Amino acid sequence: MTNKLFCFGMGFSARLVADALHEDGWKIAGTTRSPDKAALLRSHGIEPFIFADDQPIEDIRAALKGVTHVLISAPPGGMGDPVIHHHGSDLAILPEGTWIGYLSTTGVYGDRDGGEVTEDDELLPSGKRGRRRVAAEKAWFDLGRRHGLCVQSFRLAGIYGPGRNALETVKSGRARRIVKPGQVFSRIHVHDIAQTVLASIKQPNCGAAYNVCDDDAAPPQDVIAHACGLLGVDPPAEQDFASATLSPMAASFYEDNKRVVNTRIKQELGVKLRYPDYQAGLLALYDQLLAKNTANGDAD
Fold it and tell me: Where is the NAD-dependent epimerase/dehydratase domain (predicted)?
């Protein structure tokens, strides 16, 4: 029997997982919000379905036909998790043991004043988005327990990768070096997210939660400075967080300060990070940028 993955939300991380499995001969289906993106997915061999917070899938039976694995990257909203809200009962009748992966966030831990957190620590979210994630995780684990589904949660740190990284921020002129003493963030390259999810599919542990981050939680201003060094430009001047003008969304990221521990993905899933720190990740992205510019005939 051919395996089939269904992705609720074919976004930055989920698409990489889907593409890897598609190359291995899996059937892939997934959701998007727009007809234009649906057409693009179809052109890449992915069966598309339209889905949004206020728009359930019209033919959910057709969507889930033959599905062996489900990946959820749609974020929770005011109604809670939109997938469970609209289609929890449909997923509940999937065959017992069906693998379900939920892409969550390290925001479920809240602020630890720079201390370490593991998957065994209490979830103490500090903001509305974090509280919604905790509720969504609980809803998925509850669904799994009640209906014999093999649910795992992947708590993702700050995601970066091709087209979405500090190099692009610097090149666009949007880079700022905001300094809040003692503040660190954990990060993860999108390719390492994909390999972690793929490792879980190969050796599932029903009910497990995994911290998905690299080995080096670091101050955000250091990442921008490193990106500037690779690009050969002067870094922007440091700005004190207390006096910096930030949007409410940007300021909210500084509410949480913690070092996320990733030991479980290494010991349990055998993950060997391709990019164990931001230096390795940005260098690889810089090399890709140079290769692209060379192929396009651009000067350095």
Answer: 102-213
